[in-house]
Structure formats: structure tokens, C-alpha cells
Amino acid sequence: MPDQSLLDRLAIRDLVENWAVWRDAGDWERFATVWHAEGWMSATWFQGPAADFIRVSREGFAKGVRILHFLGGTSIDLAGARAIAQTKMTISQRAPVHDVLCDVVCTGRFYDFLEKRGGTWGIVRRQPIYEKDRIDPVDPAATLRLDAEKLAALPEGYRHLAYMQELIGYKVKRDMPGLTGAEVEKLYAQGREWLAGKPG
Q1: What contacts 47, CB < 8 A, 6 or more positions away?
Q2: Among the four 26, 34, 119, 134, which has the fewest Cβ within 10 Å?
Q3: What sign does the dihedral 86-80-12-45 (CA atoms) show?
Q4: Model pLDDT, residue 199
Q5: Given CA atoms 21, 23, 25, 31 in this order, what sign does their dihedral have?
Q6: With contact defined as beta carbons under 8 Å apart, do 112 and 84 qualify?
Q7: Rounded to whole angstroms, what are the CA distances from 54 to 34, 51, 177, 199?
């Protein structure tokens, strides 16, 4: 029989995968089940309670906004009823940029604070780490010219994603964690505190 650690890891991985599939498919009722009641979501364009994130994601989906996710490997640190999961992922979004339809792809990690309550794992906090990104016209023959000064002013790990999102009206947070730097080191420290049992 598998031990409890393995069962917990399988349950966490299942939860992480369900998050991406259910959100991107617009399966909002099941998407709500991956969070604990006080769950908190951070993204380039949103920071707040999971319930609000579900609501605004649902509103955007109904308007045709498509922000999609693809997952890679997961690393899970377990400490009793708490865990930190890091999952390789890409975020992709399609929208017009200066009248040219473009795809942005951002590579990074989901950094999840999880807790097991009543036998069920749920997300308490999700913080993406943005490592690198790129932008490409959907039509490879199209010519795309970006504002170089504006682009350079945006954070390196998600500057093309932020460029697109600001053009279509989102307010983008400028100090999200990247591959290196003070913000990601602060996140890692918070993860260690979570696993040590400190209040989240």
C-alpha cells in the first residue's frame, strides 16, 4: 500500500492540475473547490481573494478573454498538514498589440501554499514566479513594432505579457517575483515559514 506521503503528493498534484484545466475550461463550480475559503490569488493583473479571482475570471471568460495555462513538473515539500508546491508552467494570452493579433507566452512556476483540512488539500495562496516571456504575431508575415522604452520599463520576467495586458486595459503589478532577486527570495522565505507552521 502507498504511504501517506505519497498519497498527499498525488492529491496535491491532482489539485494543481485541476486548477489549470478547470479554470481554462471555464468550469467555475469545480474550480472553486481547489481553494480553501480564505484562498488568495496573485497574478500580474489581479491580487486578492480567490472568490474575487473566480468572479473576474468568469467575467473575462464571458467577454472572450483567453489566458491559458500549461503545466510541467512539480516539486512538493511536505510538512504534516502543510505543503509548498512549485509547478513549472506557461501562461499564454492572445490579444491585439498595436493592431496586430499576437500571442504572448510566459514561462515560470506556480508557487502554492497548501494545507490539508478535514482530509482535503486546498490552496491557501498561489503566487506565480515569472521567469521569461516572448511575444509573436499570430500571422508570421505580420510586422510588429513595440515601444522599446515602454517595454524596457517593464519587469524582465513578464515584460511582454505586461505590455499586452496594459494595452488592453489591465493594471499590471510591477514587482512580481522573477527567476532571481529580492522578491523571489522573500517568497522562498515565506514558504519556509509556512512549512515551519507559522501563521500564513
Answers
A1: 40, 41, 173
A2: 119
A3: negative
A4: 83
A5: positive
A6: yes
A7: 11, 5, 22, 25
State which H helix or E strand residue 185 sits in.
helix 182-195
Nearest in space to 117 (alpha carbons), one of 51, 39, 175: 39
Spatial CA neighbour of 71 closest among 83, 87, 82: 87
Structural domains of the chain, ranges and CATH numbers in brackets: 4-184 (3.10.450.50)
Q: How far apart are CA 62 and CA 155, in angstroms?
A: 29
List residues bridging with 49 in a β-sheet.
Answer: 40
Distance CA 31, CA 33 (A): 5
Residue 108 and residue 130: Cα distance in Å, rounded? 5
Residue type, 44: T
pTM given for the model: 0.95
172: phi then psi, degrees, rounded to nearest 5: -100, 130
Q: Is 12 helix (H, G, I), strand (E, B) or coil?
A: helix
The partner residues of 86 in beta bridges, in order of sequence, read 75, 111
Q: Give the pLDDT confidence of 148-180 residue by residue, as tens digits.
A: 999 999 999 999 999 999 999 999 999 999 999
Longest dimension (CA), the chain: 59
